[in-house]
Amino acid sequence: MLRELDPHTDFIPRHIGPAAADQAKMLSVIGVADLHSLVQEVVPPSILKRGALKLPASRSEADALAELKEISGRNQVFRNYIGQGYYGTHVPNVILRNILENPAWYTAYTPYQPEISQGRLEALLNYQTMVVDLTGLDIANASLLDEGTAAAEAMGLARRGSRSKSKVFFASVHCHPQTLEVLRTRAVGLDIDVVVGDEAQGLPDCFGVLLQYPHSLGGIADYRVLTETAHAHGAVVTAATDLLALALLVPPGEWGADIAIGSAQRFGVPLGFGGPHAGFMACKDAFKRNMPGRLVGVSKDSQGGPALRLALQTREQHIRREKATSNICTAQVLLAVMAGMYAVWHGPVGLKRIAERVAYLTAFLGKSLGELGIGTSGSAYFDTLLLDTGAHTSAIVQAAQAACINLRQVSATSLAVSLDETVTVADVHALLQVFAAGVGKSWDAAGQHQLPADHGIPAALLRASPILSHPVFSRVRSETDMLRYLRGLADKDLALDRTMIPLGSCTMKLNATAEMIPITWPEFGAMHPFAPTSQSQGYKELIDRLSAALCEITGYDSISLQPNSGAQGEFAGLLAIRGYHQASGQHQRNVCLIPASAHGTNPASAQMAGMDVVVVASDENGNVDVADLKAKIAKVGDRLAALMITYPSTHGVFELAITEICALVHEAGGQVYLDGANMNAMVGLAQPGKFGSDVSHLNLHKTFCIPHGGGGPGVGPVAVRSHLAPYLPGIVNEAGQLPSGAAVGPVSAAPFGSASILPIPYLYITLMGSEGLLEATEVAILNANYIAARLQKHYPILYAGRNGRVAHECILDIRPIKDSCGISAEDIAKRLVDYGFHAPTMSFPVAGTLMVEPTESEGLAELDRFIDAMIAIRGEIDAVEKGLSDAQDNVLKNAPHTAQMLMVTEWHHDYTREQAAYPLSSLRDGKYWPPVARVDNAYGDRNLICSCPPIESYIEDAAATPV
Ligand SMILES: Cc1ncc(COP(=O)(O)O)c(C=O)c1O
């Protein structure tokens, strides 16, 4: 065949770790003839798919990229003045190349293991410090998904923190329209009435108030008095705000706001058709223990040195389940890192200069438009002008389109323009020429134009307090400084570019370079989410193709790519179920059955969707206890809305009873929600939409190669069977409003969520093709079974399915070891750092265990390196068990060992320094040295510090340094 001459299957062996010969060795270790036989042993016949996926064959990298380039070319990237929460920005090149395009940053995992995450934790602490500083509040998190969902989270936080008994949440009519839509969607399940109005007309009785500062259409109000009034009535006040504007404006914390939220997009993160961008939230100290999302805090390590780690909310959903403050798990870490570094790069002087340029150019534009006879409404503004364009409106829009310029169309007689840091004087002249043409006049760009004396920020609202005063924002002057700072931070961390990350349930697989290339193409990066749809045809093609492929893979009929995390997908899926029941007149169906082993986001999402959670027990094999399920179904009767089940289970097995379980739920009138986070075990082998489930979310940041970015971005599409399709998340129009007739509102601010990273899963599917995707799944199962087979002599494998096999991950039971000698799963996790590994998932879904998921991307050598480390550690445990090592003072309890710990004159341990640092001789080549010793989590939670250490500590340090 002629096709054979093309390198079309080259990518498959690049993505899949073990070569054919290695696969054969591994199969012989586990005692199976071939991959096909292994699959027959593992996957229940009742769900096994017959026939190949109907997807095109694999393509070469060059071929697939060329085709995607052609698709991206169908996007028409206009000059955008739309604003509405999304602004042009220059991504500093040093950040683009060294963070966004650098696998050391983008392939890292969420920093749950702080000892190997100090670099990204410091970057996130910078982000939090920046947000605290600019908003004038006490504490900030890192981070939320976007501005709309941040507003929705603030609504929840306000409710938890308010003294008022009211069910009403007041949102200003001046908020971005898409924010209001997301709020309305969220309010549905929380029994909150969102009242949208003009605060100038007075506030209703309410528990919370959301104000936009500056307004979506540009105005800036002084909210001091209003805030006092709201507080007097027990309401919590939230400001939706803009970090660049706050460089010049009195910050919300100074005028009394309790919470500030917004998007950090314009701090060096591309528009990307709406995402991914980091949302932010800051609040007063009084609210901190209720704040949603992840919070980085300062603590100390076992040697008494400062160390960073996630505070309070670490795995909050796992601990508090349906009582969790929110379902936020994957956030937007990489984008938060970029935004924080944007502040480090520009520093206080640079940032203020950017804000002032924008403000003065806007003032110049307003004055010049006045000369053309176009009035601006309101005299207070930062970067946005609302223009009274009257009868000239459509002519101006036409002239703008002809000049490849997008304006914000507000009504038939008014337009708005927003400026950003990328706008030059020449751009403003081009804009004025467009307006002049629209009103039948001309604009002389070469004329002697004067800059107005003032910009549009009223004197009473001009910020007097300094910005970015923390030394971290002044440490970088030159690009050399910045380059080394970023490199230094990255070097502190372990990411996939150095080692396998065997995290169960997280699917840390290869994020191939080719898959990452298009996300920085301007055709994708510079597209505004509210640009006319005629301009985003390339995105439409990409979204349509990816949607079709994901439907084929999952067996569902429809899909929404809008949710920007798995948990957001869960929420969307449950809203679909709720919408369906309500449309069928079954309003009472509000109970969600959730197995005890479920991921914590499941119950948290169910609660957000207004459902009551009833827990179903697991049997001794880790499967859903079918007898208990039947009892619970009988007990909740016609209140049954849904069962949420993860498949293969979080215990890492394909439960045989899955089809029976689905049938039981359907017979009782319920819907089946199958959590698709473990889809990496099923692609090409089984389709949940065909074997009994009604709806699933996928984690494209697991199975479909979007990198974890240190804890985000993510995409969590929600896929449904046809009867649920009408209840998928609504898509806001170009004005940011939900079209009438939509059954369900949007779950994210941007119409297609984190659209700019969709090229990654699209390319993965294209490069692998039907045959490659199937092989990836088979090898993921092979790798997990190989590890289980080799480690079972040393650590009991907690659960196994048919024929004693696991699915794509396995749980090592450490509890017997803990009982025998006190060595815990945590000790092993930390000791693995000394061996150069990131730990497996700790204590999920079963406390005291380690869950290992190797993925198909790890080759035999790396699997063996990990297995050797685990076996060597078992030997170290044996020594403790036999009393040969001290029960407290041993290599495990003291792990990880920093270089500093070993470089002491007197060594007081009964093991050697070599045993601590080089337990395997292979470690002598390329040893990873953790920057801190074991971190004390409890200390950090008791002494919560969540921004960079106070300036005084630097002064003290400087004083202590001999000159
Ligand atoms: C089984 C399961 N469900 C849901 C989620 C939530 O996904 P996300 O972190 O994208 O919100 C996860 C994430 O780890 C998971 O493992």
UniProtKB/TrEMBL annotation:
Its cofactor is pyridoxal 5'-phosphate. One of its GO terms (molecular function) is pyridoxal phosphate binding. Keywords: Oxidoreductase, Pyridoxal phosphate. It holds the Pfam family GDC-P. It catalyses: N(6)-[(R)-lipoyl]-L-lysyl-[glycine-cleavage complex H protein] + glycine + H(+) = N(6)-[(R)-S(8)-aminomethyldihydrolipoyl]-L-lysyl-[glycine-cleavage complex H protein] + CO2. Its EC number is 1.4.4.2. One of its GO terms (cellular component) is glycine cleavage complex. InterPro entries: GcvP, GDC-P_C, GDC-P_N, GDC_P, PyrdxlP-dep_Trfase, PyrdxlP-dep_Trfase_major, PyrdxlP-dep_Trfase_small. This is Glycine dehydrogenase (decarboxylating).
